DNA sequence: AGCACCGATGTCACGCCGCGACATCAACTT
DNA sequence: AAGTTGATGTCGCGGCGTGACATCGGTGCT
């Protein structure tokens, strides 16, 4: 393969992030992005399915990593715990912290992009369901563990993001799990 | 107000559902829908924000009803229970079971529409969070109860739809809740 | 009756989106 | 040098969604 690989996708990503921050997501057209990256719109759509996908290009890789972690887990007899732990231990900052910051800023500023975020979350949970079943977990249990686990973690994650990454994600996650326990068993120990 | 009100929106909905079933969602253009309903595309967009919204027009009304049910609940000391019960007791068939069937069929056949469904689910959960907080539930507990409760119910709901509405939704919901309880407390009764 | 008003719809025009078909150009291979 | 391969550009199209404005038919008031 030639060695000019990646140049365009990379420039497109940076250009898009910049423009989204400067003038907003909706107000930025693909033409502008392509112009700043010095390619045509046609090239843009060869790398990204649509304008929003620029912000979520990595998610497929993340999903694969997380699912593999489930398949590699030493013990899945406690599927809910497995799911939340894997999520909490993942390195969400990734290679470029700056790009990550821009990503969050743009997504937070655009309700329409939250949708896309939801879908990615859903995809990951679906991957978990499949992986758990492969590990022998019964279907309904797998669905519950994956979906509930994702929700529990996402609450911890939101708190973590709010703290700018300063808080301990694992601790927040444990706290959320503990709270869930009291919610599931109301009127018992821990409520009064 | 004139008395020909509603005629167009109704015809557009029926026309859209028919065409979606006949030739698929993606393959159906707004022009075709409008033609069959004997209006112009401009009129279509006056009633529906976009093509997909035809399938989700009612969801805002549903959301308002569910949220109000939380506000009217006699006791919210067990928020998770409140959420799932309200969802399980709602009349999901609505006025027309046939339209509902078409809706499900079209959504199930289109991954892109599942996204929209997710968003609506998320909106409802967000409404629950707000309502629970108004009822005095602490923020994190409200978030957990709303999001986890929605997930638990959605699993029961999926099973119910699979049974064509024959199964008892409340019972399925209870079963899911019971399973969640065993998942949250692993290594105890029910696991070995 | 006559008239002013108003809401639903149509007409026109526009810009953006996403992609198929094909041409081009650089680098690598033999 | 010639062929191959992969990235990119050019052209053109059909669908999407909306703003601006015209139209037309009831409504209500005089």
From TrEMBL, chains A, B:
It comes from the Bacteria. Residues 6-66 form the HTH tetR-type domain. Residues 29-48 bind DNA. Transmembrane segments: none annotated. Pfam families: TetR_N. Keywords: DNA-binding, Transcription, Transcription regulation. This is TetR family transcriptional regulator.
């Amino acid at each position: 393969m030639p060695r000019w690989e990646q140049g365009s996708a990379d420039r497109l990503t940076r250009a898009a992030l910049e423009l989204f921050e400067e003038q907003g997501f909706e107000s930025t057209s693909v033409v502008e992005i392509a112009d700043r990256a010095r390619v045509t719109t046609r090239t843009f759509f060869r790398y990204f399915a649509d304008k929003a996908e620029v912000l979520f290009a990595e998610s497929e890789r993340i999903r694969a990593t997380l699912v593999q972690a489930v398949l590699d887990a030493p013990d899945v007899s406690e599927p809910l715990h497995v799911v939340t732990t894997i999520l909490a231990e993942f390195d969400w900052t990734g290679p470029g912290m700056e790009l990550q910051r821009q990503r969050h800023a743009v997504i937070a500023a655009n309700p329409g992009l939250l949708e896309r975020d939801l879908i990615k979350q859903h995809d990951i949970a679906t991957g978990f369901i499949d992986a758990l079943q492969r590990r022998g977990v019964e279907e309904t249990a797998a669905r519950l563990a994956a979906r509930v686990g994702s929700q529990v973690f996402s609450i911890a994650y939101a708190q973590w993001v709010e703290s700018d990454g300063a808080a301990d994600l694992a601790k927040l996650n444990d706290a959320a799990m503990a709270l869930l326990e009291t919610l599931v068993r109301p009127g018992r120990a821990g409520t009064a």
